[in-house]
Design a protein that fits this description.
- About 30% of the residues lie in helices and about 25% in strands.
- The chain has about 450 residues and is α+β, with helices and mostly antiparallel strands.
- It has 3 domains: about 70 residues, Uridine Diphospho-n-acetylenolpyruvylglucosamine Reductase, domain 2, CATH 3.30.43; about 110 residues, Uridine Diphospho-n-acetylenolpyruvylglucosamine Reductase, domain 3 (2-Layer Sandwich), CATH 3.30.465.10; about 200 residues, FAD-linked oxidases, C-terminal domain (Vanillyl-alcohol Oxidase, Chain A, domain 3, 3-Layer(aba) Sandwich), CATH 3.40.462.
- Strands 14-15-11-13-12-17-18-16-19 form a 9-stranded antiparallel sheet. Strands 6-7-10-8-9 form a 5-stranded antiparallel sheet. Strands 3-5-4 form a 3-stranded parallel sheet.
- A hairpin with a 4-residue loop joins strand 12 and strand 13.
- Helix 1 packs antiparallel against helix 9 and helix 8 runs antiparallel to helix 9.
- The longest helix has 15 residues.
- Bound molecules: flavin-adenine dinucleotide.
- Flavin-adenine dinucleotide binds next to strand 4, helix 5 and strand 10.
Length: about 450
């Protein structure tokens, strides 16, 4: 196995000569916190100075908080959204103390969980209960409520976003009242609440449809860009989970598949993906002015890397650690336009943005029928572009967004975009239905910060 970091460093040299304030800290105190505690998201691009931050210890405290708070109330999960969903000068409420498995049914394989549970904390309890999440995103730091509220997704053209796993929800509404909903009880609210950006109320519990525990074989294979373009559609149809990454200015990328297996647990030697991103940054820093040389060095380095295989329990085999912070824009495009859009993204990037080094991520997600889901009534190909958190993301994202919009893409609710209310109304056939339910649930707009007030 080649030590990629040393190799790349040597080749480049020869050629040219960070976080949100953790709520756990506040949870100990339990009560609303004084004005002096600012909030910021994971990447640091969203910040605010709320009047109060609170982490209720139980549902009664949550109800009391919402009923008595003056001004706007915004729920926060793990602060891993890039879009301005959370910032407020009112109250920020975290469900970090309402976490864990509440109940499960071995017959239906459904489980009720506290909405503040982090994905990474529920895999083991679910496995012990004989269940597992159907799919997961590429990290497991987020909370359940945060994921469901923004239609967070993994990859797999036969699998919907996480909100499609919801069988029932419990919310605390704008008056502090508990409301339950599912397909037969409050069905309109249920349909709206599955993806609702924290604008209908604070979700306290969720009931999820799970599956029996399963083991996945993950395989990562390095390939040339053109090969990936040729095989991507077939691979998406053949594998349970398929995605690919393209490394800017390299002509190279890798495919990543997950398939069900009975093979024994084990792994080949793995590359540290955070080291890899640091390597790409180094290549950018040293070779920004020489794209040809950059491509030569990156492609020759990548071609010497070994493929990887990991067999593990599903919940340990989806997530990566993302320690190098970034800002992100991701759009969900009709599947049939995804690969053409990817080609255009690469062209625009490599013609104009030598400052960019983060890989582009491409995933596939099954369509659904949830009113505010970006996957509403269409199978999608999702393309995500990233910029290092210290760099200005605007020029790059401004170049790429028109490509996504040309193909009628819908942005990920938790990621950066420049769309307005009129744009969203055109993209979402059930927008008005959602807005109607929203007005009924929250007639005074208590759950709207300035960004969301602009949308609804
Ligand atoms: C490193 C990284 C990797 C990521 N990978 C993926 C990925 O693979 N796939 C993907 O789709 N997305 C991904 N995302 C985006 C992320 O999954 C979403 O933005 C998600 O919403 C973040 O969850 P959170 O718990 O941090 O919620 P937050 O960002 O804190 O909040 C998101 C929304 O949920 C609402 N909310 C939170 N809790 C509640 C509640 N109890 N009741 C009502 N509303 C609530 C908030 O008000 C807000 O509107 C990634 C983000 C990062 C930073």
């Amino acid at each position: 196995m080649i030590k990629r970091r040393n190799l790349l460093g040597a080749m480049v040299a020869a050629a040219v000569g960070s976080q949100a304030v953790p709520f756990q800290a506040l949870a100990a105190a339990g009560k609303a916190q004084p004005r002096s505690i600012p909030w910021r998201n994971w990447s640091g691009s969203q910040q605010c100075l709320p009047t109060a931050r609170s982490a209720p210890a139980n549902v009664a405290e949550l109800q009391e908080l919402i009923a008595s708070a003056s001004g706007t109330v915004r729920a926060v999960g793990a602060g891993h959204s890039f879009s301005p969903l959370v910032p407020t000068d009112g109250t920020i409420v975290s469900l970090s103390r309402l976490s864990g498995l509440i109940d499960h049914d071995p017959k239906t394989l459904q489980a009720t969980l506290w909405a503040g549970s982090r994905l990474g904390d529920i895999g083991q309890p679910l496995e012990t209960a004989g269940q597992a999440l159907i799919n997961m995103p590429d990290i497991d730091e987020q909370t359940l409520a945060g994921c469901l509220s923004t239609a967070t997704h993994g990859t797999g053209i036969g699998i919907g976003c996480m909100s499609t796993f919801i069988e029932g929800l419990q919310l605390v509404d704008a008056r502090g009242e508990l409301v339950d909903c599912d397909a037969s009880n409050n069905p309109e609210l249920f349909q709206a609440a599955k993806v609702s950006l924290g604008t209908l109320g604070v979700i306290s519990q969720v009931r999820l449809q799970n599956v029996a525990p399963y083991r996945l074989r993950r395989e990562t294979v390095w390939r040339e860009f053109e090969e990936i373009m040729e095989i991507a559609n077939d691979m998406a149809d053949t594998h349970r989970n398929f995605e690919f990454f393209y490394i800017p200015y390299s002509g190279m990328g890798f495919t990543d598949t997950h398939d069900l297996t009975d093979e024994p647990i084990g792994s080949t030697e793995k590359i540290d993906s955070n080291d890899s991103v640091e390597d790409l940054k180094m290549a950018r820093d040293w070779l920004e002015g020489s794209p040809k040389l950059r491509e030569l060095i990156l492609s020759s380095t990548v071609k010497m890397l070994s493929d990887e295989v990991t067999v593990e329990s599903s919940w340990k085999n989806y997530a990566n650690e993302r320690n190098v912070r970034f800002n992100e824009m991701e759009y969900h495009l009709p599947r049939e336009h995804g690969l053409q859009a990817m080609r255009e993204v690469r062209e625009v990037l490599e013609a104009n943005h030598p400052e960019v080094f983060f890989p582009i991520e491409v995933r596939f997600v099954k369509g659904d029928d949830i009113w505010l889901s970006p996957f509403y009534q269409r199978d999608t190909c999702s393309i995500a572009v990233h910029r290092y958190f210290e760099d200005d993301f605007k020029p790059y994202f401004k170049s790429i967004e028109p490509i996504f919009r040309k193909y009628n893409g819908r942005p990920h609710w938790g990621k950066l975009n420049t769309l307005t209310r009129d744009d969203f109304r055109k993209l979402y056939p059930r927008w008005n239905d959602f807005a109607e339910v929203r007005n009924t649930m929250d007639p005074k707009g208590r759950f709207l910060n300035p960004y969301l007030a602009g949308l609804f």
